[in-house]
Design brief:
TATA-Binding Protein
Amino acid sequence: MELYLEKRTSKSFEEALVALRETLKERQFGVLWELNFRDKFAEKGFEYGKNHMILEVCNPKIAIEILNAKPDMAYFLPCKMMIRDDGDSVVVGMIKPEALVDIMGEDSIKEAALMVEKTLWSAIEAAV
């Protein structure tokens, strides 16, 4: 079972990040939190020489529906996306919500998870 999806782009890290934020917003997903491992490690005195960021994203309307149906899905919310420098390209990826639902055996919310997955993947495709 594939747990994540990725796409490469020749855009710079910053260009890809700005584009991803915009395409998520267009699809009613907000970025709740961002963590750049490079910057966080530097704060702790460690060097990690490339941009490697996690974004936690959410559509509140969908999240509430999922949590009302299956409160344990909070372990996987908000949805995680990743963007990182990878040599001469940038990789943008995401955890597959449908795979997480399969792991939890929550068939009753599979349709919602698949819809979220398609929406987030379309944001990535549009951004790169």
